[in-house]
Amino acid sequence: MAFNDLAEYFDDQLHLPINGVVYDIPSPDHELGLWVTELLSAGVSIRQGIALDPDRKAPKLRFEGSEYDDDSDEAKLYQRLLGSTYGKLRADGVSWPMIKFVAEVTMVWIAAGEAAAEAHWNAGGDPKALAAVLAPESAPANRETRRHGTESTRTATESTTGTRASMRATTSRSPRKRA
Asked: How many distinct structural domains can be found in the chain?
């Protein structure tokens, strides 16, 4: 038995409807994908009360030869996340808050998969809905908690049942035919 050509049935874009127009968000490059995944993973760890490893260096995202600056490069980040769709959104007069939300949903899609992005989109950005998908309260306790009934002082990089496992559980996307 041979593998079928993945391109025949796997859609690696995100399709978001806004005002009757469907915008196709392109798949991220390797660097952006890893950066977004690390960023959201750290956020989920913090929400779960998992201490971040202070010795771990944050990944750097580059923009045309320089590193991303949180405050001054917000529009550059959205352009990088959304690719050519950013210009289409602006040309179509989509509001800045909507563009920001599209970028936010795109980050969720990159890090946690289509199901998590869809839940966040359909909840209008409600952080509780996203948290329920990324780090469900009903997630099983880590091994130390189950053994001793207490929370551990683990770090995000030491955890095997926390953040990364929760994020991996939501990253699988069902392959589908392109329209």
From this structure: 1
